[in-house]
Amino acid sequence: MYISEPVQILNDVFGYKSFRPLQGEIVEAVARGEDRLAIMPTGAGKSLCYQVPALARPGTALVISPLVALMQDQVRALREAGVAAAALTGATAMDERRDIWNALEQGTLDLLYVAPERATMPDFQDRIGRADLALIAIDEAHCVSEWGHDFRPDYRQLRPLCDRFPGVPRIGLTATADAMTQADIAQQLGIDADKVVVAGFDRPNITYHVRAGDSRTRQLMDFLNGRRGRAGIVYAPTRAKVDAIAAQLQAAGLNALPYHAGLDAETRSANQAAFVAGDDMIMVATVAFGMGIDKPDVRFVAHMALPKSIEAYYQETGRAGRDGAPAEAVMWWGAADIARARSQLAEGESSEERRRIDEGKLNALAAYAASAACRRIALLTYFGEPAPAPCGNCDNCLEPPTQVDVSEDAVKLLSAVYRTGQRFGLGHIADVLGGVASERASKLGHDRLGVFGLTEGKTTRDWRPVQQQLVAEDALRVDPQYGGLTLGPAARAVLKGERTVSIVPPPPGRKRRRQQGAPALSDADDPLFGRLRALRKALAAEHGVPAYVIFHDATLAEVAARRPATEADLAGISGVGGAKLERYGAAFITAIADYEAQQ
Q1: At 346, is the pLDDT very low, low, confident or very high (cuts 50, 70, 90)?
Q2: Please, are residues 202 and 385 in contact by the beta-carbon 8 Å criterion?
Q3: 404-503 belongs to CATH 3.40.190.10
Q4: Which CATH topology does 206-393 take?
Q5: Which GO biological process entries does UniProt record here (predicted)?
Q6: Model pTM?
Q7: Handedness of CA 94, 95, 99, 100 (dihedral sign)
Q8: Which segments of the chain belong to CATH 3.40.50.300?
Q9: What is the pLDDT of residues 322-333, one digit of tens each?
């Protein structure tokens, strides 16, 4: 396929009438033969930034992608749209491999997807060098940077490949990169600094919730009970947690599966395929799952513990609502999460510079979790984007928390930690401060310290939010194995009164907090939407593709709202391209007519 006008390609092939902000600028530049590094939020249409120019320029686009699953999903969706696309992987059969090379040599292949490991092989480069290349696209480009959260050494070898084709435009794409990572990506890929385009990091369709994790499995069940029938991802910190949570969700009647590196490859592949194809599947996974999963209708992402950094958090939560429809991101955390992360940093073999940078990233994430301010402002500020007004669509905006100044208690807690030798857990420290006359305190001589009995009546539960805030601010550190408390770098400023400490007090007792209502797009809200989803599911099974490849939820919602009576009316809806209209249009028009006849 070769169509010269990008807007015509966008309309005729992909079914969209106009480009999104900055998307058109990037497409036009690459179609003209210019390089670009595109930093765009998930759901902003990064794939179209190279897919449209691939069809606008003669030749085949070489797309370098990190995961086989991502390649397969992209190829499947492109073929559904009538585009000649293929992926060359280790699992590609010999006859299919031969057909791909023949199509490449004959100039009938629009896009070829390969992994970076293959792209850097000399024999592959020799063979691709005899083809007519339209462009070279490097997806998930943050993997090229050692400062990125998913660094892959093979990505570092892509610059020579790009330089081998000086007249071929190169485009790097990622959703997640702070200023330092952006500069490193551009340098590693040989893209000039003035060719970097940052489309913004705001995902206004995602509602962010961050909660103290006092009983995380129960809290997760409370959250999911109001979202049955929705597709989502639950991230857990360990394989054992993944297996346990998946089993609990299954026992509760939820359609859930586990995913982690401890499962055999066949099981992982089957579970991933079930998640991609299902409308209501919940994948419980470690962070090994997600990158390259091109599923637009994920309605929520839940974190059962703090991720590695704000970049990782943004990337993982960004897997929700890729279709632009309402979605949610919820995270439960505690001081133990930070303690575990600090321990891992200390035990790692990274350079001093890398350790310092990672420590800063962890501190930024802890501050984000403990903050009472707008979540969206905090995220955008971190990535260097001008902060807007409060979003009105995060937990702190929807239910503004009351902050309490606990600086005086913070000084007492830090003092007690110091005077008892910086090796005891919160329970013992609380007993000392509360003046509990125990045999242990007497034996250690802690009942004779000046801090003994300073705060009678306060329990360990009362002190926990103060400890958590001090840990988040790195004024206090927790031994992840034994729970002993030690002073952190920020303790001196707190003790000297140069830094105030505020907390959001927890709700009284164990009363369960009512969750925000789930976003729209449900069968109950609109029966026609439910009927169209059922039709989509049946067509997907018939054609052997995931449901979203036929139409995204957002497209179905618009179809249900507008109720087109003819295929010409259906063609006017965003996401309905020519090939899909021809293949599926009649079935949807008939379903709408039948529904209206029954009303």
Answers
A1: confident
A2: yes
A3: no
A4: Rossmann fold (3.40.50)
A5: DNA recombination; DNA repair; DNA replication; SOS response
A6: 0.62
A7: negative
A8: 6-198, 206-393
A9: 888 899 999 999
